[in-house]
Amino acid sequence: MFYLEDDKEDEEVCKGSLSKTQDVYHDKSPPGILSQTMNYVGQLAGQVIVTVKELYKGINQATLSGCIDVIVVQQQDGSYQCSPFHVRFGKLGVLRSKEKVIDIEINGNAVDLHMKLGDNGEAFFVEET
Fold first, then answer.
1. Do 13 and 42 lie in a common domain?
2. Given pLDDT bands bounded at 50, 70 and 90, which one contains residue 75?
């Protein structure tokens, strides 16, 4: 609701844009309110877009999980050679990643090969020297 004084000029300006009942104007918006509201909505939408963009830019890569396929080929001498691969575990699913050891299975069979997790959830082989 909009309250206006009993001033003839105000009544003339608002005449036709508001209906008056006992000095209280309602139903229609006074001139300029719609554009002010749309301006506010536009600013709010702009702020939401900026906030979402900042959240997207702020995604920590450590929260993402993934890997690539590995191709392993048996060589003529009986050894195996594989394509390069990458494994990452999201930090949201792995707490205290430094303490985690990854067991590796090939075709469902456990092998005597292990990986460890780095601070950002990336898996790597540890070579004993």
1. yes
2. very high
Contact 115, 126 (CB under 8 A): yes
Q: What is the tally of structural domains in the chain?
A: 2
- 36-66 pLDDT tens trace: 777 777 788 878 777 776 666 656 555 666 7
User: What residues make up the domain containing 27?
Assistant: 2-57
Supply 105's token pair.
């299975």
Asked whether residue 41 falls in the same domain as residue 86, the answer is no
Q: Are 58 and 41 in contact (CB under 8 A)?
A: no
Half-sphere exposure of 1 (CA within 13 A, CB side): 8
Q: Are 38 and 50 in a shared domain?
A: yes
Would the CA dihedral through 40, 41, 42, 46 be positive or negative?
Answer: positive
102 and 66 within one domain = yes
Q: How far apart are alpha carbons 58 and 92 in whole angstroms? A: 15
The shares of helix, strand and coil residues in the chain, as percent rounded to the nearest 5, are: 30, 30, 40
Is pLDDT above 80 for 73? Answer: yes
